[in-house]
Amino acid sequence: MLIVQKYGGTSVGDLERIRNVANRVAKTAKEGNDIVVVVSAMSGETNKLLGYAEYLSDHPKREEVDMLLSSGERVTAALLSIALNEMGLAAESMSGRRAGIVTDKVHTKARIEHIDPTPMQRAITEGKIVVVAGFQGVNEQGRVTTLGRGGSDLSAVAVAGALEADLCEIYTDVDGIYTTDPRIEPKARKLEKISYDEMLELASLGAKVLQNRSVELAKKLNVNLVTRSSFSDAEGTLITKEENIMEQPLVSGIALDKNQARVSMRGVADRPGIASDMFNRLAENNVNIDMIIQTVGHDGATNLGFTVPKTELGDAKTVVEGFISDKEVDEAEYDENICKVSIVGVGMKSHTGVAAKAFATMAQENINIMMISTSEIKVSMVIDEKYAELAVRALHNAYELDK
Ligand code: ASP
Ligand code: MG
After folding, report:
1. What sections of 31-183 are H helices per DSSP?
2. Contact of 94 with 130, CB cutoff 8 Å
C-alpha cells in the first residue's frame, strides 16, 4: 500500500517525539508499505516565528511572512528524515517546492492549484521514505506561499490525492471522531467509519481533529482519510465515501454548537423583496446566517427569525434596527442564550421517523424547541443554552449511540 501519514505539531513537539514518530513510520515501512510523511512545525513554532515578525513590524510583508513561517515545517521534515536515516532507513525530506506543490499567488492563504508528483514518485521508486514539509507550496512566480493556519492537513490530503495513495492518516493527540463530545457524554463511542458528508455536518465534533477544508478536499479527490492518535496504537476513524460504509446507522453523531445567537422579528412588512433586502444587507455586513424561519403573522405582516454566530450579533442588530427605523419591521428580539443541537446520519435518507424521535426526546425532557431546520442527513434544533448538555445526552441515549 501507499500510505500518506501526516503528523501535527504536538506529535512532533520535541526531539523525543520526532524519534517516536520515526519509530512509527519505520514500523509501517517494515510492514511493506510505501510511505510519504507530511509534517507540521513543532508545536508553538509557527506562533513563535509570527511573533518575531510582529515584533519588528506591524505590517510585515506577506511574502516575507510566508518565507519565515514555511521554515518551521522544513525544520521538522529535515529532523524526521535525519532520525529515519539513523534507524538505517532511506529517507529524503522535501520542501513544498521540491514536492511539486504549486499554489495561487495569495500569500499566507494560498490555495493549492496542482501538484507535480514526479519527484516524490521517483524517490518512492528508489525505495525512499519521502518526508514533505506541510503547509507550503510555491506560486507561479516561484515564491514560497503558505496555505493558512492549520494548512498542513490540506498538504497531506492534496499529496495523497496526487499520488493516488490508498490511505491518508492524520495523526493528532485525539484518537478519532466520537458519536458526541465525550466531555458531555462519557458514554460517547469512537466511530469506526463515517462518510465525508456526515463529517462535514459534524464539524463541531471534529473541529480539533480536522479542518473542514481538508474533509472537502478529501471528498473531492476521493482520498480515504483516517484520523488517529500518534500517542497510542488505537485504530482511528475512517472518513470515506458513503458507498464504502456497509452498515449505515440511522444516526452517526450528535453535534452541539454553543456559538449561535438568535434574532426574531415581528411585524415584518409583507412585500416581495423584503427578505432579499434584509439578507443582502446582512451579507454586505459580513454576517453569516445559519437557520432562517419565516411564519405568517396577522394583519398582513410576517414573523422572521434567523441565527448568527454570537460574535456577529452586534452587526446583525445594526442591520435589523435600520429596518425598524424604516418602519419595515415592528420589533425585534435578540437572544444570545441559545444553542444548536444537531443529529446527523446518512441513514436518515432512507428511514422515516428520525426527526419525530428527536422532537419526542425534547418533549420528554421538557425542552422547548425554538427553531428547526433539516437537510437530507441532518436535523438541527435551536434550544435554550442551559439545556445544551441535557439535550445532547438525551438524544445520544434515544438513538442508542452508546451501543
Ligand atoms: N504550522 C502551521 C500552523 O501552525 C500549519 C499546521 O500546523 O498545520 O498553523
Ligand atoms: Mg493542525
Report:
1. 45-56, 62-86, 118-125, 152-162
2. yes
Q: How far apart are CA 16 and CA 148, in angstroms?
A: 27
pLDDT confidence of residue 85: 98
Mean pLDDT, consecutive 10-residue stretches, the chain (403 aa), reads: 96 97 96 97 98 97 98 98 97 98 97 97 98 98 96 97 97 90 94 94 74 93 95 92 84 93 94 94 94 84 94 96 96 96 92 93 97 92 97 97 92
Question: Please, what are the domains in the chain?
Answer: 2-173 (3.40.1160.10), 254-398 (3.30.2130.10)
Q: How far does residue 160's CA lie from ligand 1's centre (Å)?
A: 18
pLDDT, position 206: 62
What is the distance between the alpha carbons of residues 213 and 206, in angstroms, rounded to a whole number? 12
Q: Out of 10, 39, 152, give the residue to mutate to test ligand 1, the one with the largest number of ligand atoms within 8 Å of its CB.
A: 152
**CA dist., res. 219 & res. 224, Å (int):** 8
Residue 366: Cβ within 10 Å count: 8
Distance (Å, rounded) from C-alpha 98 to C-alpha 120? 8
Q: Determine the atom of ligand 1 nearest the C-alpha atom of 150.
A: 8
Q: What is the pLDDT of residue 82?
A: 98
Can you spell out the DSSP letters for 288-336?
A: PP--EEEEE-STTEEEEEEEEEGGGHHHHHHHHHHHHHTTSEEEEEEE-
Q: Grid coordinates representing 279? A: 439578507
Cα separation, 159 vs 237, whole angstroms: 20
pLDDT of residue 205: 67
In angstroms, the CA 12 to CA 77 distance is: 10
